[in-house]
């Protein structure tokens, strides 16, 4: 790709700065920034000029937790890499990191190759992969070293889902020890799955089958216990730890304590835990199934502690855990048995707007918005400053964002391949207007102008927060 683009008149917001500046893009990268109206900026010539007057100019979002086409509970996530990355672009996200899955009895390489095959040639935006490690053995541990060298530098393990993705403490410790040596980062789904399965069985035996019981059996204390245990195993291994989709205030407290003690422990939360609650799980007529995800939605009082964690940096990243299943035909698999409802929510298109609403509502600052949605995930997973900022040399992944436009979130208007919105009817202020990915227009003034296959696979370096 060649050619020059200038974005004029906007307020450029990064994690560290807010400046009224024009942006020069050349050959897919940011070439320069200059204060608008200065002789330097006025001297730029370009093939294309984009007017951002009265708008924000922000880095494209980095969503470090998505599950496109994930097999789960006898079905598949309803977004493909094509539909999911297109929806991400509509929502101002220009990079996703998805999860390749190792199945038990298979190698990491087989899982990674399968995900490359799903994504290649189909993505509208750039993408990378984490590796789900389901079967820890000596061969797997050796493969982890090779994957780190190839740019797959993070590995997810599950303390939940016995019989599917579950790893016991010994397997977790071995993987953590390996990552301590090879520079990889272990990502942990921290819930005590063995105990949860007992509570599921007992609830169903009592005839408690509705979706709301999904939240009741997956107790906050069992998230906190698993978070504590994961932290201690990481300390024993001398390894860093990243805890995914933190939903409970008790789990935040465990992370905060470990960080106060100086440990390399990091935490992620998701918009659903910040904006939704068990009230949604309790919606009648099986509507609550739309909100079944794990970790589950919590009572509303947990939200304040999650926002506080984001302000104090005890939580560093907001990702979506985007894993959509349609209400009709997929969520309905769990009618009469909440344990059979596929776990996951759609959200890849909503994250940047919801977090801007948090700015409007006074929960976070504008720069913190960009930090938790763009810069920190890029640093955490070895993509900064190529991704996550607007600076000379960075990929020209840039969003022109209208902070005053109002919208109503709805399945009628979203672009995710799912038949409901988790935020149906929610009014928000702020909306994506134009999106560039490596200098190419993907969304042009609210029209999709991208194409499948533009998105490129992005190998990653190791976590940039580690000494």
Characterize the structure shown.
The protein is 31% helix and 23% strand. The chain is built from 14 helices and 18 strands. The strands form three sheets. Strands 1, 2, 3, 4, 5, 16, 17 and 18 form an eight-stranded mixed β-sheet that branches. It has an eight-stranded parallel β-sheet with strand order 6-9-10-11-12-13-14-15. The chain has a two-stranded antiparallel sheet with strand order 7-8. A hairpin with a 2-residue loop joins strand 17 (427-437) and strand 18 (440-443).
Low-confidence residue ranges: none
Give the rounded overall mean pLDDT.
Answer: 97
- Please work out how many helical segments DSSP would assign: 14
Q: Structural class, from secondary structure content?
A: alpha/beta
Question: How many angstroms does the end-to-end distance come to?
Answer: 36 Å
DSSP, total strands? 18
Strand content is 15-25%
Helix content: 25-40%
Rg, Cα atoms, Å: 21 Å
Largest sheet: 8 strands, mixed
C-alpha geometry: globular
């Amino acid at each position: 790709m060649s050619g020059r683009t200038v974005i004029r008149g906007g307020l450029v917001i990064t994690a560290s700065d807010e400046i009224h500046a024009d942006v020069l893009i050349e050959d897919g990268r940011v070439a320069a920034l200059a204060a608008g109206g200065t002789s330097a900026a006025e001297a730029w010539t370009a093939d294309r000029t984009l007017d951002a007057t009265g708008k924000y100019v922000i880095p494209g979002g980095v969503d470090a937790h998505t599950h496109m086409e994930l097999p789960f509970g006898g079905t598949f996530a309803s977004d493909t890499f094509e539909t999911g990355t297109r929806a991400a672009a509509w929502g101002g996200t220009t990079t996703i990191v998805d999860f390749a899955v190792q199945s038990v009895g298979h190698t990491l390489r087989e899982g990674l190759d399968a995900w490359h095959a799903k994504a290649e040639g189909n993505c509208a935006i750039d993408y990378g992969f984490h590796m789900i490690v389901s079967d820890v053995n000596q061969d797997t541990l050796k493969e982890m070293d090779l994957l780190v060298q190839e740019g797959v530098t993070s590995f997810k393990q599950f303390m939940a889902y016995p019989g599917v993705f579950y790893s016991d403490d010994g397997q977790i410790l071995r993987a953590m020890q390996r990552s301590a040596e090879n520079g990889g980062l272990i990502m942990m789904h921290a819930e005590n799955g063995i105990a949860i399965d007992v509570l599921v069985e007992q609830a169903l035996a009592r005839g408690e089958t509705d979706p709301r019981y999904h939240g009741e059996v997956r107790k906050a204390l069992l998230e906190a216990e698993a978070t504590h245990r994961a932290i201690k195993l990481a300390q024993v291994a001398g390894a860093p730890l990243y805890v995914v989709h933190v939903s409970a205030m008790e789990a935040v407290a465990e992370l905060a304590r470990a960080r106060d003690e100086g440990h390399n422990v990091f935490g992620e939360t998701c918009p659903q835990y910040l904006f939704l609650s068990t009230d949604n799980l309790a919606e009648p007529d099986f509507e609550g199934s739309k909100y079944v995800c794990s970790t589950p939605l919590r009572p509303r009082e947990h939200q304040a502690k999650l926002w506080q964690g984001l302000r104090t940096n005890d939580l560093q990243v907001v990702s979506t855990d985007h894993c959509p299943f349609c209400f009709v035909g997929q969520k309905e698999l769990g009618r009469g048995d909440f344990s059979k409802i596929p776990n996951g929510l759609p959200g890849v298109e909503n994250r940047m707007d919801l977090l801007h609403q948090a700015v409007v509502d006074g929960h976070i600052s504008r720069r913190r918005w960009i930090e938790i949605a763009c810069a920190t995930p890029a640093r955490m997973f070895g993509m900064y400053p190529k991704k996550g900022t607007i600076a000379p040399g960075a990929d020209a992944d840039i969003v022109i964002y209208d902070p005053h436009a109002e919208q109503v979130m709805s399945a009628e208007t979203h672009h995710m391949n799912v038949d409901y919105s988790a935020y149906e009817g929610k009014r928000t202020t702020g909306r994506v207007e134009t999106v560039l990915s490596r200098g190419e227009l993907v969304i042009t003034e609210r029209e999709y102008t991208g194409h499948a296959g533009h998105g490129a696979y992005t190998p990653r370096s190791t976590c940039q927060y580690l000494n």
